[in-house]
Amino acid sequence: MTTIRRRRPPKPKLAESRIIERRDITDDLMLMWIEKPEGFSFKAGQYCTIGRDGIERAYSIVSAPHEETLELFVELVPLPDGVLTPLLWELGPGDVLSIRPRAKGIFTFKPKYPNHLLVSTVTGVVPYVSYLRDYLHRKASGHRFYVLMGASYADEFVYDEELKRLASDLPDLVSFVPTISRPDEERNDGWSGEKGRVNTIVEKYAEKYGLSPEDTLVYACGHPGMIEEVKDRMAPRGFTVEEERFWKED
């Protein structure tokens, strides 16, 4: 009897991507723009896998697929828990990262629903920004987006100005509600918007906007605890919840 051994296909070779720009938002949050390798393509909401010194991690892509660079929103996880992000915090324009040649992920826009309730914490807003940029670029129509974005502090929102502008310019397309969970702390002095953890206001705004399980898909992206509570609140009401968990250094 002859045994046929099938060879496993080789892993795709790593490409290189140079850092074009870095912008520090807080001590533990930054934006980074890196080169898009030739032939690299992705769907809005997918992630890329980047690395340094042999250490790799996945990051959702802020950019829409048509944009020339890959925009990333990164949270620092300090040592000993963090592995890659402490290395990233030492880098700047001109430094080189490795990047896997293919984007992955299924947390993408689902057009079969007319209404999309997008719930996030801090960096969890990333795929939603990509959805909206791509949707506008494609000049698509027939949908509405309701973005609920939570953070401990107002300076962690980062994409709030972009989302406010869209909500103001295109009120029939985008609604945007940022909320902070620590309104009494000095860092949030002057805040006059919504208050409370984002998972605690989901039902309130679903009712305010007249959303129903038949015409609305709920997306939850960010902290695993937030996602579980959104599911606990919305699933019993009949809503389908798509999720993308951002574990520390996942």
Give a quick rundown of the structure.
The protein is an alpha/beta fold. The protein is built from five helices and twelve strands.
Describe the protein in words.
- The protein has 250 residues and is an alpha/beta fold.
- It folds into two domains: 15-99, Elongation Factor Tu (Ef-tu), domain 3 (Beta Barrel), CATH 2.40.30.10; 115-245, Nucleotide-binding domain of ferredoxin-NADP reductase (FNR) module (Rossmann fold, 3-Layer(aba) Sandwich), CATH 3.40.50.80.
- It has five helices and twelve strands.
- It has helices spanning 85-88, 126-137, 160-169, 202-208, 224-234; strands at 15-26, 29-35, 47-52, 55-60, 69-75, 96-99, 115-121, 144-151, 174-180, 194-195, 216-222, 240-245.
- The strands form two sheets. Strands 4-3-6-1-2-5 form a six-stranded antiparallel beta sheet.
- β7 (115-121), α2 (126-137) and β8 form a beta-alpha-beta unit.
- The longest helix is centred in the middle third of the chain and has 12 residues, at 126-137.
- The chain is globular and about 50 Å long.
The count of DSSP E runs of length 2 or more, i.e. the number of strands, is 12
Distance between the termini: 45 Å
| Strands in their spatial order, largest beta sheet | 4-3-6-1-2-5
- Radius of gyration from CA coordinates: 19 Å
Q: How much of the residues is beta strand, in percent?
A: 25-35%
* CATH class identity of the largest domain: Alpha Beta
Q: Any guess at the CATH architecture of the largest domain?
A: 3-Layer(aba) Sandwich
Domains, number: 2
Structural class per helix/strand content?
Answer: alpha/beta
Stretches with pLDDT under 50, minimum 5 residues: none
